[in-house]
Specification:
Elements: E1 5-6, H1 16-21, H2 32-49, E2 54-59, H3 62-73, E3 79-82, H4 87-98, E4 102-105, H5 116-124, E5 131-137, E6 139-140, E7 145-146, H6 149-159, E8 162-166, H7 178-181, E9 185-189, E10 200-205, H8 207-215, H9 225-232, H10 243-259, H11 261-281, E11 285-286, E12 297-301, H12 308-319, E13 321-322, E14 324-325, E15 335-338, H13 345-361, H14 370-384
Amino acid sequence: MKKSLVLLPGPVPVAQPVLEAMAWPMINHRGVEFADLLARLERQMKPLFGTQADVLFLGSSGTGGLEAAVTNLFDPGDVLLSVPVGVFGKRLATIARTYGCEVEVLDTPLGASASAKALAERLAADSQRRIKGVLLTHNETSTGVQNEMSALADAVRAHGALSVVDSVSGLGAARFEMDAWGFDVVVTASQKAIAAPPGIAMVAVSERGWSAMERAKIARYYFNLPVAREFARKGQTPWTPPISVFYAVAVALERYHASGLDANFVRHATYARAIRAAFEALGFTIFSRSDAHSVTVVAAEPPSGVDATAFLKTLRETYGVVLSGGQGELTGKIVRFGTMGDIGINDLLGAIGAVELALADLGAASQRGAGVAAASAELATRVAAGAL
């Protein structure tokens, strides 16, 4: 297989020791070794969530974790308020509708972050407290937008609704304080900032969330979180877990914590700034608004006259660098450059150099070397300060 530099919003490049862990021998998933592994992973995940609550591990993608959140908290007919800022926020709303919830959408312009003021006003207008839950996105990879979660939390807490947060592409790359902010269910996954292969969703649930789940009547089986909690207390999962992925996550988290939370936050934010600087120097237009930039993915419109699909194909097939295109209504309009995974400064600058070459191949008027120079200047500041 031809080796490529994959800089997607996920799955992300995985370090060799993490990949090698997947070749370890199988163990008894009802035995002591797995119980020890599960306990260690929960301890290591809690600081990323910013919680002392239970963290459960589900054999699924992040979407499975989000479905579990909805089906365990809410019943058909419950009124939910969805606050999407892109495709994945809309997916969460679709999950809720699929299970019979009545979902109202608080719209946000593409490229903007959710307005805490608008959310507070809508919830304040709900004088009869019909809105049972609020569906939020921490980081939206389809638009390159990151929400200010503490402000949104204040609005939800004042109303009293239950909250579900999709932090699949945010947790571990940006600070999150589940307990301090008062969120009820937060979901992430293994294939993003943790830099492990896909296959495990992590779900943290507050005590208020558990109380609501005890009252919920909707049918659920595989994604029954109270049952998962009972098994977790015995050091098990209800169903056969993807043991090899658990091994990989264990090594990935060891590597993550060896760097430290703050260093990981700085690295993702710095890489995102460097990519934005490079893109702007090369004539791209950053899609996210200046107060809404994600730290895990940069979304941008190509320079005038450059077709996004042709650019991505040239970059991939000629230079071996894989970026993402747009989704939904942004298909063919933007490109997306991820910052997550086992990548370093050399990878970043090499990819930007390849972007310059692909633009030249397509006849763009971009100045050769401008992107690398802009990114290098941004990175040098952090390197000099000892932050990278």
